[in-house]
């Protein structure tokens, strides 16, 4: 049975790459944006959520989104596998990847399938040394490139091959593929692509960490391919002997100058010489250099207890600041241009063990804390102040729009709209079974929620 499955995966991916060399075929000519219903045509000019939390700073803010008064079911799309990443929305279409290695384009107005592309056979958990996703296919949130009108996904297929796939947004045709297993001397079956992809400056960035359980010989890294499929795949690997995963669901953030910010998990070193783990890194756009870094003063002790910063991704704030929170409960405010080195934060605030992706509106940040989602305000002088904490069961990765913070009770599968000012629940709606790190997408007057069965769309009236 394993040999048959491997053959299927190989045929699909070989078909996609048969025209080229060096890991990918030449991309085809740019195609027109997808067409859709009249409602989709109207949404086309107003709705854009092309990446995780809508923008490369990972703000998760939707301007012009309606205030929540009544929530109603709009449509449900049952797909061929669980959806772990956010749906991305461009041109009246929502693009979604599943753990069955299939990408769908869904009409935003109706949820009807415009096209789908199956990319290979996902890896069953039984074929991996550890992990908690079964099967393992497309996990990270896709990213859309407006210049080439391409949807990018990272797929894991039988044999634990990790592949960047570039799809024509109009019809799902494969434009090119690139192999992403570029960490030399590592066991690719122990690596996992979980963080969101990011498109910036003509490159698409793909982060890698390990499987749940931190088993085997892996090291965290970020790979980058040109969005036109040319050139070699660049990579930056964390300079630790093992682990140091870059796995936060929000993926890399990118600032206006093109510098790349990532959060790194626990590494092998428990003291002595610093090994680059348990950190926030600022990398050059070509990934050739680490420009600056931050690590907590007690990074060695945090490594020894798996209490690291890698559980959330960096949130870029106005005024050249960065917010990060991790497993210890400490929130750190950093200077974006000089992250501060070891113990060099500008401010800190205890009380938020955080997993997932943060969001912001103005100077207010919203953090997915284990004791309940929190609003933390950042002053112009660089101080942090906690404003409110939601109920403990409401702790999903948030987004912001219409004066509300949209988040999930991931245990019960309930979408909540919380008042941005005081955190009370304004409205709620059951959406189905979701993953721990699920985060909604705000599109027009719809909230799209990734579920274990596909996508649920909730109408805001």
Automatic annotation (TrEMBL):
Occurrences of domain Pyrrolo-quinoline quinone repeat (ranges): 74-206
A Pfam cross-reference name: PQQ_2
Nucleus listed as a keyword: no
Gene3D superfamilies: YVTN repeat-like/Quinoprotein amine dehydrogenase (2.130.10.10)
Annotated region described as Disordered, given as residue ranges: 19-42
Low complexity composition-biased segments: 30-42
UniProt keyword terms in alphabetical order: Signal
Signal peptide: 1-20
Record protein name field: Pyrrolo-quinoline quinone repeat domain-containing protein
Organism the protein comes from: Actinoallomurus vinaceus
Taxonomic path: Bacteria, Bacillati, Actinomycetota, Actinomycetes, Streptosporangiales
